[in-house]
């Protein structure tokens, strides 16, 4: 039921688990064993976030094993996630953004960069989405842009969503074109 990209990431995450737990029957694995696994993963320098992703996958595996009768309980649900420190994201003020646009305009290829900055600001698109927009995706008559999420990824369905052209963005795009 998962997207192919998710399956690929989970296969990568399950490999170290198989090295540790692969020869042990699921009914024999304890919360203590899982804590030992976590200590081992931290010992090789893995970040808390990565360990937590592996732990989440392990919980899912045990949940499924209980469902199909291959395990009696889920010892991974008794193991807490490691604390994760979140970086504070800088969100520029309107003045900061305008100053950045001004400085960007003075760089080589600044006109391209500034157009991209305004495009991102007025559409809310992700960087990869905004870099892949073509002129044929922009309908100036109806003031709408067809944004393809996950463009260029052959392993997932491409979904298109309409984004209204902000009145301030339209002249910027027309000038750029």
How would you portray this structure in words?
The protein contains seven helices and three strands; from the N terminus they run ααααααβββα. Strands 1-2-3 form a three-stranded antiparallel sheet. It has helices at about 5-20, 30-45, 50-70, 95-105, 110-125, 125-130, 170-175, and strands at about 140, 145-150, 160-165. Helices cover about 50% and strands about 10% of the residues. The chain is elongated. With about 180 residues, the protein is mainly α.
Condensed summary:
This protein has 177 residues and is mostly helical. The protein has helices at 4-21, 31-43, 48-68, 94-105, 110-123, 127-131, 169-176; strands at residues 138-139, 144-149, 159-164.
Question: Could you name the key traits of this structure?
Answer:
about 180 residues, 3-stranded antiparallel beta sheet, 3 strands
State the helicity in percent bands.
Answer: 40-55%
Low-confidence stretches: none
Shape summary: elongated
| Class per helix and strand makeup | mainly alpha
Strand arrangement within the widest β-sheet reads 1-2-3
Radius of gyration: 24 Å
| Number of DSSP-assigned strands | 3
Figure out the total of helices. Answer: 7
The end-to-end distance, rounded to whole angstroms, is: 42 Å
Average pLDDT, all residues? 90
Q: Note the beta-strand portion.
A: 5-15%
Q: Specify the oligomeric state.
A: single chain
Largest sheet: 3 strands, antiparallel
């Amino acid at each position: 039921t998962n997207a192919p990209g998710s399956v690929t990431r989970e296969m990568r995450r399950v490999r170290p688990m198989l090295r540790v737990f692969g020869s042990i029957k699921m009914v024999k694995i304890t919360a203590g064993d899982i804590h030992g696994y976590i200590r081992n993963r931290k010992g090789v320098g893995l970040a808390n976030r990565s360990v937590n992703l592996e732990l989440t996958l392990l919980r899912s595996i045990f949940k499924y094993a209980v469902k199909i009768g291959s395990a009696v309980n889920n010892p991974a649900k008794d193991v807490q996630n490691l604390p994760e420190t979140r970086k504070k994201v800088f969100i520029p003020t309107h003045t900061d953004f305008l100053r950045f646009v001004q400085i960007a305009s003075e760089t080589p290829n600044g006109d391209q960069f500034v157009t991209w900055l305004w495009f991102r600001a007025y559409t809310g698109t992700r960087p990869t989405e905004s870099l892949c927009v073509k002129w044929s995706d922009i309908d100036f008559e109806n003031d709408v842009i067809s944004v393809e999420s996950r463009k260029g990824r052959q392993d997932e369905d491409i979904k298109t969503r309409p984004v209204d052209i902000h009145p301030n963005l339209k002249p910027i795009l027309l000038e750029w074109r």
